[in-house]
């Protein structure tokens, strides 16, 4: 195996793939990156057995062969080389020589036999669609904040992709809040899968400015993302996803529209106090005709009251977790925010009526937040 | 079928490297062998690909050696592959969540089931203060969503601080909100007695079934399980069963499980899985609030000054606080004077020192030194080494706390020059106690050894 390539390119490819190659002690080869050269095509591959990242690296010259190398060591060595140097990586048995200008090292690799073969998506039976990378990134960022990291409820550790009436929606929840976003209109096939949040985090990290389209394919138990030279394959979460749509209230008693920045400011002020109290709780209250206030109290330190003047239709109050409120405000892509809530029990769902946060005049993104009892 | 796979795995383990074995075969299971069509359950598609391409021969051979007839081998993804083949889990009772949803449709309570709860304990008459607000917040969460966030709910604190009240209140409120859930409250001593009884009458199964059908299990005074190994084992089993089904478990104790002698380490760990909540001694304001609400409950009149007087002088626990209040109210009833008049004319004397068993300064200093593995001479020395200094300050604190000695007297007892050093030391420990749980536990166990 032999490749010749510019150091920057190799470094970037390695840093794309090497993030997930760490931490497995039972099978040491999983800490390695597999370098595979076949018919002038070079691919760098890593896997943690939940997902795999593949980077197709364009090189100036190559000789066929496969080898695996400690991912961390190689990545750090290459990234410390001066920019735009020609690097030559060549293997003889398991000894790998890396030469760049005046710098050279020999790294002990291992044969590729132990490296797991990756599952593949059958192109014929797979459901595939592509979308703008920026839109994808925004959508995932807006929803992923609500996913859970409690592995006792596996379904909630993922983001659920599903189609409803020809549109593709994504949704995540940790049981206390729900974030839902409409992603694509006019989807032809039915989709109903849950993708691990960890995988999506990796996809987000792999996105760079040069990419403009992302291609996503699913089959029964796999998903594949294609982003320029990078391909990410991951398992899907095999667990029933709860029905979220029934939780979203159709109407609320109290509705206000406010500037996002202003809301974010008073929410952050209140959270300084809320984080010392029980449950990180803040209380939002409306008074007609035009007062929306947030109140937070910390037994030991004191309390905070902030007001925004905006048109208010009904009076009421609701106690919520400040972190969840701020999370939502930080990701909504709109200057004006629509906040809606009711006091007491929602008649349709029989649970305490949640707070709804969305863009003004748009239902594309909906974030709902369960109230705390106070 | 399960055993066949166990044997097969044992054979495969011999043939391949241990890293490969533990990575690829750990969570596998044999789902079916019907008619020679072998189906093996695995974690995800990465495993299917690898097992099929690299280990098919090994698997085939090992299965053949175990007498399995093979036509073809297929793989299937199982999120929790092992659980599907264990026989007793096939008939698992419904999960708590499902019960909650079915409950709504049948809003009739099952009266026949005795809960062991006393309905006089409610959250409304539980006074919330900075000493217990965290525990109460968690309790409210449990009432709304039993079996989710704080499970198990482990509550600890000294006697008379309201543990029983709080957990019984949780039970009562859950019953109010979700009338079809089975809530069961039992002090650990009754649990033990029940268990012994069931063994004597050979009705172990009934005992087990009784507990396994419960949705919310409340065990009070868990520390009393000391030295009852069989009961502990039984409790451990019941605990695991209920926890797996997301049933709410609530346990109280006067200390952390790791500090209870002879409690199995695994059990101790599990009990504090979802965190341990403590009830602390109420602060002055909290004590006033407790006394006020108690007086209002009885409907007695008492001056604010009288309440402050009692609050200031009782530093042990809430039970004593309420006891003292009752005494004063009774006296004022009998003598026809208001509580404040009684206090002012000296008919009532409240002093917390009376409440404790007698001890001596020497004993306190000895025990502190012993606890920190120092000699008494070292503790009394002029050394400024951190651990010795800390022990010395703890001794000062305890001398003041337990015997109310003057700072000058304390100075001579621990061998420091002047009273200002003592004041500083006591203050430091008082401050540390607010945040340092380790120190709090240390001091609690030193106290225990003092009054042994």
User: What sort of overall outline of chain B do the alpha carbons produce when their principal axes are compared?
Assistant: elongated
Residues in helices of chain B, as a percent range: 55-70%
The helix content of chain A is: 10-25%
Number of helices of chain A: 6
Poorly predicted runs of 5 or more residues of chain B: 81-113, 352-356
**Count of extended strands of chain B:** 8
CATH-assigned homologous superfamily of the largest domain in chain A: DNA Polymerase III, subunit A, domain 2
Poorly predicted runs of chain A are none
Euclidean distance between termini CA atoms of chain A: 67 Å
Q: How much is the average pLDDT of chain A?
A: 89
> In total, how many beta strands of chain A?
25
What is the number of helical segments of chain B per DSSP (H or I, 4+ residues)?
A: 22
Report the radius of gyration of chain A as a whole number of Å.
25 Å
Query: What's the order of the H and E elements of chain B?
Result: HHEEHHEHHHEHEHHEHEHEHHHHHHHHHH
CA-to-CA gap between the ends of chain B?
57 Å
What is the global morphology of chain A? elongated
Largest sheet: spatial strand order of chain A: 6-2-3-4-17-16-15-10
Secondary-structure-derived class of chain A:
alpha+beta
CATH class of the largest domain in chain A: Alpha Beta
Largest sheet of chain A: 8 strands, antiparallel
């Amino acid at each position: 195996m032999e490749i010749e390539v510019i150091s920057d390119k190799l470094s970037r490819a390695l840093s794309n793939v090497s993030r997930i190659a760490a931490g497995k002690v039972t099978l040491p080869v999983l800490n390695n990156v597999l370098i595979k050269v076949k018919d002038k095509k070079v691919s760098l591959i890593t896997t943690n057995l939940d997902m795999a990242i593949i980077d197709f690296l364009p090189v100036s010259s190559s000789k066929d062969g496969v080898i695996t190398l400690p991912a961390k060591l190689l990545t750090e060595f290459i990234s410390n080389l001066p920019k735009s140097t020609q690097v030559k990586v060549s293997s003889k048995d398991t000894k790998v020589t890396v030469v760049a200008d005046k710098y050279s090292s020999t790294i002990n690799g291992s044969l590729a036999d132990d490296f797991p073969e990756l599952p593949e998506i059958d192109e014929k039976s797979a459901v595939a669609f592509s979308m703008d990378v920026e839109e994808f990134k925004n959508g995932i960022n807006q929803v992923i904040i609500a996913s859970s990291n409690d592995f006792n409820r596996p379904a909630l550790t993922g983001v659920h992709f599903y189609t409803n009436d020809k549109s593709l929606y994504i949704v995540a929840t940790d049981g206390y809040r729900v974030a839902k976003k409409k992603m694509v209109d006019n989807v032809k096939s039915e989709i109903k899968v849950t993708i691990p949040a960890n995988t999506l985090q990796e996809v987000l990290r792999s996105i760079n400015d040069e990419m403009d389209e992302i291609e996503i394919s699913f089959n029964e138990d796999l998903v594949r993302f294609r982003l320029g030279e990078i391909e990410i394959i991951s398992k899907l979460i095999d667990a029933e996803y709860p029905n979220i749509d029934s939780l979203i209230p159709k109407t609320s008693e109290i509705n206000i529209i406010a500037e996002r920045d202003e809301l974010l400011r008073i929410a952050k002020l209140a959270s300084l106090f809320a984080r010392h109290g029980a449950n990180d709780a803040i209380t939002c209250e409306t008074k007609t005709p035009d007062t929306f206030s947030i109140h937070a109290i910390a037994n030991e330190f004191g309390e905070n009251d902030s007001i925004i003047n905006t048109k208010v239709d009904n009076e009421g109050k609701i106690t919520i977790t400040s972190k969840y409120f701020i999370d939502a405000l930080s990701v909504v892509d709109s200057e004006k925010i629509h906040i809606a809530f009711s006091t007491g029990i929602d008649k349709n769902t029989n649970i305490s009526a949640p707070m709804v946060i969305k863009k003004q005049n748009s239902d594309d993104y909906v974030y709902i937040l369960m109230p705390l009892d106070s | 079928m399960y055993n066949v796979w166990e044997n097969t795995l044992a054979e495969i383990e011999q043939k391949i490297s241990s890293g490969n074995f533990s990575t690829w075969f750990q969570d596998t299971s044999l789902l079916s062998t019907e008619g020679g069509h072998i189906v093996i359950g695995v974690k995800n598609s990465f495993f299917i690909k690898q097992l099929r391409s690299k280990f098919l021969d090994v698997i085939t051979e090992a299965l053949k050696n175990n007498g399995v007839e093979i036509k073809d081998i297929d793989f299937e993804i199982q999120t929790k592959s092992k659980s599907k083949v264990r026989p007793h889990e096939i008939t698992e009772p419904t999960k708590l969540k499902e019960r909650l949803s079915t409950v709504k449709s049948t809003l009739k309570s099952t009266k026949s089931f005795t809960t062991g709860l006393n309905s006089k304990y409610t959250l409304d008459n539980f006074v919330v203060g900075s000493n217990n607000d965290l525990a109460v917040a968690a309790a409210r969460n449990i009432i709304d969503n039993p079996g989710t966030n704080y499970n198990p709910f482990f509550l600890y604190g000294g006697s008379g601080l309201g543990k029983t009240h709080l957990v019984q209140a949780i039970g009562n409120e859950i019953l109010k909100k979700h009338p079809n859930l089975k809530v069961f409250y039992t002090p650990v001593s009754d649990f033990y007695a029940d268990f012994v009884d069931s063994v004597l009458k050979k009705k172990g199964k009934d005992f087990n079934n009784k507990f396994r059908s419960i949705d919310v299990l409340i065990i009070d005074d868990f520390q009393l399980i000391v030295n009852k190994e069989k009961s502990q084992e039984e409790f451990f089993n019941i605990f695991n069963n209920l926890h797996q089904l997301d049933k709410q478990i609530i346990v109280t104790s006067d200390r952390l499980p790791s500090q209870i002698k002879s409690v199995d380490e695994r059990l101790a760990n599990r009990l504090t899985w979802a965190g341990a909540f403590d009830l602390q001694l109420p602060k002055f304001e909290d004590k006033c609030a407790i006394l006020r609400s108690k007086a209002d409950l009885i409907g007695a009149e008492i001056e604010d000054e009288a309440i402050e007087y009692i609050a200031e002088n009782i530093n042990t626990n809430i039970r004593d606080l309420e006891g003292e209040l009752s005494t004063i109210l009774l006296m004022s009833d009998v003598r026809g004077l208001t509580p404040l008049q009684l206090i002012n004319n000296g008919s009532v004397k409240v002093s917390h020192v009376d409440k404790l068993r007698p001890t001596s300064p020497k004993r306190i200093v000895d025990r502190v030194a012993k606890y920190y593995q120092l000699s008494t001479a070292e503790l009394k020395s002029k050394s400024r080494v951190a651990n010795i200094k800390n022990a010395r300050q703890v001794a000062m604190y305890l001398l003041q706390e337990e015997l109310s000695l003057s700072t000058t007297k304390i100075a001579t007892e621990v061998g420091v020059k002047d009273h200002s050093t003592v004041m500083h030391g006591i203050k430091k420990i008082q401050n540390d106690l607010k945040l340092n749980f380790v120190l709090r536990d240390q001091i609690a166990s030193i106290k225990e050894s003092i009054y042994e």
